[in-house]
Specification:
The protein is of the alpha/beta class and about 230 residues long. Helices cover about 45% and strands about 10% of the residues. Helix 1 packs parallel to helix 4 and helix 3 packs antiparallel against helix 4.
Length: about 230
C-alpha cells in the first residue's frame, strides 16, 4: 500500500512539473534569448559528475572555436560551477527555476526525498525543454540541438575507447583522440569563480590549502580504462 501511494505521489508530482514547465520554460527562453545567438544549442541534465566533465569537455573541444549555448539544468547533485570551466567557447545559461527550487527544498527538508525521485522530477522538465528546442530547430534550420548520445556519435572514432562498464558497453568514442591531438582548449575555472570555490572549501576545511594534496582515481579492476 505504501509503495502504491508513493507511485501515485510521484505520478502526480511529475504531471505537476510538466504543467509548471509548460508555463515556466517559455519565460526562460524569452529571458535568455541570447542563447539563440549561437547556432548550436545544448540542453544538459546531469548524468553523473564524471559524465558531466567528459561531456562538457567533449562539447567544448569538438566545436572549438565556434561557440555553443549550454542550458545547464540544475539538480540537487549538480555542480553549479563546473560549466564555467569552459566559457572560452561555451555560453552558460543555468536553469534553476521553480522545479529545481521545489525539489531542492523538499530534498533538504525532513522529508529527505530519494535521489532517484529528485533526479526524475528534474529530468522531466529537461525533456520538455529539449522537446521545445527540437521543434524550434525543425522549423529554423540554422539551429542544431545537441544531446549526450548525438554528441557521442559525432566524436572522431578511435579504436581505443576511453571507458566501459563491467558489461563491456562503451559510453563514448574518440575522447582520447580529442586529447591526444590537442583539439580545443583545456578547461579552466575563471578567477572570480575560483575565489568563490576556494572560500567555500576553506569554510569547511580551513587547512585544505596549507599542505600538498593528491587526487586518487579508484577504479574497479574489472573495468577497462585507458587513464
Amino acid at each position: 500500500m505504501k509503495h502504491l501511494l508513493l507511485k501515485i505521489i510521484v505520478f502526480l508530482a511529475k504531471n505537476f512539473i510538466v504543467l509548471l514547465g509548460i508555463i515556466e520554460i517559455p519565460f526562460f527562453l524569452i529571458k535568455n534569448r541570447k542563447l539563440f545567438a549561437n547556432a548550436t544549442i545544448c540542453p544538459y541534465h546531469m548524468y553523473s559528475f564524471g559524465n558531466d566533465i567528459l561531456y562538457l569537455d567533449s562539447i567544448s573541444r569538438l566545436f572549438y572555436p565556434n561557440r555553443v549555448s549550454l542550458i545547464y539544468f540544475m539538480t540537487p547533485r549538480s555542480n553549479r560551477y563546473l560549466p564555467f570551466c569552459f566559457v572560452h567557447n561555451i555560453d552558460v545559461f543555468v536553469y534553476d527555476g521553480l522545479v529545481y527550487k521545489i525539489v531542492d527544498l523538499v530534498k533538504t527538508s525532513k522529508l529527505n526525498m530519494p535521489d532517484s525521485i529528485a533526479f526524475s522530477m528534474c529530468e522531466t522538465n529537461y525533456l520538455f525543454l529539449r522537446a521545445v528546442l527540437l521543434v524550434i530547430s525543425a522549423f529554423i534550420s540554422k539551429y542544431h540541438v545537441l544531446t549526450f548520445y548525438i554528441t557521442s556519435k559525432v566524436l572522431p572514432i578511435n579504436k581505443v575507447y576511453y571507458v566501459s562498464d563491467t558489461s563491456g558497453d562503451v559510453y563514448g568514442y574518440g575522447y582520447l583522440y580529442l586529447l591526444k591531438n590537442k583539439i580545443g582548449l583545456n578547461p579552466k575555472l575563471p578567477d572570480d569563480v575560483a575565489q568563490i570555490v576556494q572560500k567555500a572549501i576553506h569554510a569547511v576545511y580551513p587547512e585544505f590549502f596549507t599542505k600538498p594534496f593528491v587526487t586518487l582515481l579508484l577504479v574497479d579492476p574489472i573495468v577497462k580504462t585507458t587513464f
